[in-house]
Each structure stands twice: as structure tokens, then as C-alpha cells.
Design goal:
By secondary structure, this protein is mainly β. It is 13% helix and 48% strand. The strands form 2 sheets. Strands 1, 2, 3, 4, 5, 6, 9 and 10 form an 8-stranded mixed β-sheet that branches. The longest helix is centred in the N-terminal third of the chain and has 17 residues.
Length: 193
């Protein structure tokens, strides 16, 4: 009987030693994300006087953010973004509208609350990124894509998503357009009087 107890206790120690510790608060509730994009363009042209003009045009965009899962049905997301090009003078933080953004300015391109009150309904409110594309002949007029390429832009407003993640979804977006115009390519002409 003593040898059986000794074998069981040794087995239980091995089993406990192999089990991974439960994830901590940080791993369960915090998600970090970010990206870096860069481009290098060469502008070579011949002037009317026969001289050749050569320019190197570097550009880059950097974004970094965090999502905090407050509850299973609510998340807070914040992300900073900036872009650099040959005209960048300095780096400065500004919570600004799209028309004020200059190379080197760091601003929030995402700062929003996500609520999931039902498995079929998601609501996002604040400064957010909206992205979806319609694959059709009228693709450009029906698609929406904030911060494409090296650009830094966003949608200020509210976004309702109705449907399951892997199936048909209905989107409704209420966008705030400032006096200077929208913060993305939607409504470029500015608000109507």
C-alpha cells in the first residue's frame, strides 16, 4: 500500500508541473497592435531646358495601439498614428482634424468604445477605422477604407454592425463632418448648408 501512495503522489507532482499557469490579467484583457509601412519613390523628369531633375521621395507611416477588454461585451481601443515624408520638420502630438495633420504630427486615428449587447449586434462609438469593400462594378463608390496606403485618417462617429462575424452583415455608419470637411475621403466636399 505504501508503494501505491508513493506512485500516486509522484504522478500528481508531474501532472501539476506540466500544467501551464492560468493567463494573467494582462494576457486576458489587453491586446497590443501596430504596424509600419514605408515607401520610396523616385521622381526623374527632364525639364524644358534639357536638364534632368532627380528626387528621392521617402515616406513612412507608424501606428501603435492598445485594446482593453473591460468586460466580455465592452472594449476600449486607442491607437496613435503618424506619417513622415521628406517635408517632416519635427514630431508633435496633436489631437486634430484631418485637415490640420502635417507630416510628423502624432494623433489618435482610433479612440473608441466597442459594445456587443447581443451576439448579432456590435456598436462602435468614437474615432474609429471603418473598412469594408463591395466586390461589384460600382466598387469605388460603395467601398469604404480608412487609412489606406500611407495615409492617416479616420471616421468620427458611430458604427452599427448587425449580423454574425462569418456571414452576412448590415453596416450603418453615422459620421460627423467638421466644418473643414470629413476626416476621410467620404464627403470630401464638406457638409451641405
Amino acid at each position: 500500500a505504501a508503494s501505491i501512495v508513493h506512485a500516486l503522489s509522484a504522478f500528481s507532482i508531474v501532472a501539476i508541473g506540466d500544467a501551464a499557469p492560468p493567463p494573467g490579467w494582462w494576457e486576458q484583457h489587453v491586446t497590443l497592435d501596430g504596424d509600419f509601412r514605408a515607401a520610396l519613390a523616385f521622381n526623374i523628369r527632364e525639364e524644358r531646358d534639357g536638364t534632368h531633375l532627380r528626387k528621392v521621395l521617402p515616406a513612412a507611416r507608424i501606428r501603435g495601439g492598445v485594446t482593453l477588454s473591460v468586460t466580455p461585451w465592452a472594449d476600449l481601443t486607442a491607437r496613435l498614428a503618424t506619417f513622415f515624408d521628406k517635408d517632416t520638420q519635427d514630431v508633435d502630438f496633436r489631437f486634430s482634424g484631418r485637415h490640420d495633420l502635417r507630416p510628423g504630427d502624432v494623433t489618435f486615428d482610433s479612440l473608441f468604445l466597442t459594445l456587443r449587447p447581443h451576439e448579432l449586434l456590435t456598436i462602435q462609438m468614437g474615432r474609429l477605422q471603418t473598412e469594408f469593400e463591395v466586390d461589384s462594378v460600382v466598387r469605388d463608390s460603395l467601398s469604404r477604407h480608412d487609412s489606406g496606403g500611407l495615409d492617416v485618417n479616420w471616421t468620427d462617429g458611430i458604427h452599427f454592425i448587425l449580423g454574425r462575424p462569418s456571414s452576412f452583415k448590415l453596416h450603418a455608419i453615422g459620421q460627423v463632418n467638421h466644418k473643414e470637411g470629413s476626416t476621410n475621403s467620404v464627403g470630401v466636399g464638406g457638409p451641405l448648408d
